[in-house]
Amino acid sequence: MRSESDYNHERDGIDLAHAQNDAGRDAFVGLVHTALFAASIAFVGDVAPLKDAVLKPALLAAWFFNFVGLLALTISFQAARCAANKRRSALNDPTPPSTRGVDVLNGVSLWTFPVSLLCLFSFTTANVVQTNDRQKPSTTATVVPGHRSPGLDATAPRPRVPGSNADPASSRPTDPARSTREHLIAESKAR
Predict the structure, then answer these.
(1) Cα(24)–Cα(73) distance, rounded to whole angstroms?
(2) Burial of 175 (0-12, 13-18, 19+ CB in 10 A)
(3) What would the pLDDT profile of 96-117 be if each residue is shown by its tens digit?
(4) What angle do CA 40, 42, 46 make, to 5 degrees?
(5) Rounded distance between C-alpha atoms, residue 47 and residue 9, angstroms
(6) Residue 127 CB burial class (10 angstroms; 0-12, 13-18, ≥19)
């Protein structure tokens, strides 16, 4: 069996660890809610112009849940202080006062962050996909005068080049009595 002092020492250690955990959670929740909200405002225009954006309700929901989370966190500080004061004044009572309000506020402040993050992720993903779909390159070929690209229409007229690199289709004699060689000689003399 443990002594009263051992019991009190262990209880104080658990209370201290619990208080440190609460302080760390409150700092984390406050920081991430604020950072998420600031980042969403700062970069929403980079994802898509707001007038062209899709899934705007998801962005508004993200901002709403962020606001609710920060508000719940702020109220929970005062509620926790009031609950601690009530508990202190009721130390000798057989049933401690309820801390349900503080627990609910802490839960709301904690769980609105992932909900807000999911809404913001949905908005961003939908708009990035839409932007990428709008920016896909056209599958139609653009013809630049004087430039010949492989895969373009093979029947397009080719410039006539004298010599061994001449296009055989365009260097055929127009007079069937002349050979191709005679035709090329006549062509070079004409120039």
Answers:
(1) 13
(2) exposed
(3) 888 899 999 989 999 999 999 9
(4) 90
(5) 55
(6) buried
Cα angle 170-175-178, degrees, rounded to a multiple of 5 = 95
Distance in angstroms (rounded) separating the CA atoms of residues 29 and 27: 6
Tokens of 40: 């969403």
Tokens of 30: 């406050």
Give me 105's structure tokens.
């506020």
Separation between Cα atoms, residue 16 and residue 123, nearest integer Å? 41
CA 99 to chain centre: 38
Beta strands in 81-129 (DSSP E): none
Which residue type is seen at 90? A
- Encode pLDDT of 24-49 as tens digits: 887 888 888 888 888 888 888 788 78
To the nearest 10 degrees (0 to 180), the angle between helices 100-134 and 4-47 is 30
> What is the pTM assigned to this prediction?
0.58
